[in-house]
Design brief:
With about 130 residues, the chain is an all-alpha fold. The chain has one domain: de novo design (two linked rop proteins), CATH 1.20.1440.60. The protein has 4 helices and no strands. The protein is elongated and about 60 Å long.
Length: about 130
């Protein structure tokens, strides 16, 4: 793989992190080491795990890193829900990010399925 910058899902994940960073600017200062830090780290983790997995040049490892990216994406979603329930942000303020999260979840799922199929065909030819 290793051409992670060509992956649309990676590009979407980068945009997600940018949106999260922009949203966090409106958070109260006392959340700097709490929700802000956690949200930013989780959002960055999505794109970095996609990139790291693509750099492994092994379908099994790539799939594993895509799973980690999915988990980080779920973490971002959970933290946004918490932030909304704490009245730090409104649901309307997170709508664009929530929509992007769903899009990325779907893209990661489809990419993982594609990698599994390719890996299975490769293994069958190797036998």
């Amino acid at each position: 793989m290793n051409r992670f910058k060509d992956l649309i899902v990676w590009q979407e994940a980068i945009d997600l992190a940018v949106e999260v960073y922009q949203l966090c600017k409106s958070f109260p200062k006392e959340e700097k080491f709490g929700l802000i830090s956690q949200l930013q780290r989780a959002s960055v983790s999505v794109s970095t795990n996609i990139a790291e997995g693509a750099g492994r040049n092994n379908p099994g490892e790539f799939n594993q890193f895509l799973g980690i990216a999915q988990a980080s994406l779920s973490e971002v979603e959970s933290l946004l829900i918490l932030s909304s329930k704490l009245k730090i942000v409104t649901e309307e303020e997170t709508k664009i990010i929530q929509d992007r999260i769903m899009k990325i979840h779907n893209m990661l799922f489809k990419l993982k399925q594609s990698i599994k199929k390719k890996s299975k065909r490769y293994n069958e030819r190797s036998e």
